[in-house]
Amino acid sequence: MTAAPAALATPLPLSQEDIDTFDRQGFIRLKDVLDPDVLREREPEITNKVFELNTVDAPMEERSTTQKAFLQVGNLWRHCQAARDLVFSPRLARIAAELLQVDSVRLYADQALYKEPSGGITPWHADQYYWPLSSDRTCTVWIPLQDTPLDMGPLSFAVGSHRFEFGRDLKISDESERALQEALDEAQFPVDEEPYELGDVSFHMGWTFHRAGRNVGTEARRVMTVIYMDANIRVAPLARPEQQNDLDMLMPGAKTGEIPDTPLNPVLYPNPADHEQ
């Protein structure tokens, strides 16, 4: 595999309309952000490493709801150069900073999320339930590694739900799917679900409620994600046990009230080369 190309570093201009859309909706879908050839070249290495590091091997019918939803491997950038190329992409990090309207962003974590054929739904949830962070200046870029039609289970977003406070105490589960579906319907939040072509990405805020349907296709839905946070965000007091787990694994050594400037949380924009570990 060749070195990370300039296409992952070249800035992508955003319009004020893009920034306003993200602020209003809590997410934005962007077309043609990444070169499909760059993703095709890196997908096999990422996929091989995901299946090597995956620890879920039970038959689908014996798995929990979240295990049926996806195979999840975090901090893949530490094990795989192809994943690192995406995680450290200045192009993506700059987009995140501009959408969040902050001067700089650092890495919270990456996650590969592979929904196997016959994989179950991803229940309604908000990611920031798990994150012990002091503000909402967080977002995730969702990077499919293949075309993702509706039958493979692309993300669905509840439009504007990043300002909806019901359900923020619900972890991803059958209960979050039921309770949030009911609450979002009652509050009349529109649901946005669209297929992704290879090279398309979406960014969503930490408190934006989202879900995904089953993968009824014949191949795995292969996705890389990168979670960004304002580089000046601080570790918040822990609200639940799951946040202790994230603190220990993803921000080791960071203390409540401090900026999580750890080796696992480098600044990605601006000047990412100055912060490579």
From TrEMBL:
It holds the Pfam family PhyH. SUPFAM superfamilies: Clavaminate synthase-like. Keywords: Dioxygenase, Oxidoreductase. Residues 255-277 are annotated as: Disordered. It comes from the Bacteria. GO terms for molecular function: 2-oxoglutarate-dependent dioxygenase activity; iron ion binding. This is Phytanoyl-CoA dioxygenase. It comes from Phytoactinopolyspora halophila.
